[in-house]
Amino acid sequence: MYAQLAILLAILCPSAWAPAEEVATQPATTTAPAEPPEPPLDPAVERILDRLQAKGDKIDSIEAKIEFIKIDPVLEDRQEHRGILRFKQASPNPRFFIEFDRFRHEGITTRRKQWHVFDGRWYIEARETTATITRREIVRPGETLEVFKLGQGPFPLPFGQRKADILQHFSVKVLPPKTEDPKHTDHLECTPRPDSEMARKYDTVHFYIDKTLDLPVRVQTREKQEGNEIIASFEDIKVNPGLVESLLNLPDLSGYETDTIPLPPADNP
Asked: Quick check: 11 pLDDT over 80?
């Protein structure tokens, strides 16, 4: 579920575990075609992105209820996960905690717990159904990494992104509201820039920005290869609730089998 979790947290970058692609070197005599000039930014888009950035600058921590939905249109299959998300700025790297405690499939809801935790160094995934814990090293000891920055980090959150980063990776426009939209939101349609990894993997990304909170309350997209529709919703968002670090720790799961996957040595090409 890692790739889809990145969507839940993010502006959708599930290939974060993969190494960066190499850029092909063009012959010296080759001249790249001139790109058409970027059209002027819609003032309405600019105002919304400015609000997002300003709110993000004030965020130290967040707690919210989350709902993650995956819909397979071919199989007509719908899976829903519900739980809680906590995020906190920390040194040297920020942290997050997600606990899903309800799973709904084919009309049946079960209390099926799973956890997704990033402690600043390790991404930890634990599942109650299999009694297993998987620990993947994301950052080496003492290393600082912008793990949540769009286009760079493995967990690009929809909270606190910079306007320039969003515009670097997407062309953005405001859509008129529809009856099925979350109430009191601005609807941003974000189209990945051509030839990017996001453009190869995903269709347009839709953000629904609460006009009072100036934060996303829903993120929605479709995977190009699998065709799955992905919807992540955030409710009861609390900004700077004074989270203590113990609330971001994996609970005691004695008896669970643990698999640890460290990063390769730093000098390993």
From this structure: no
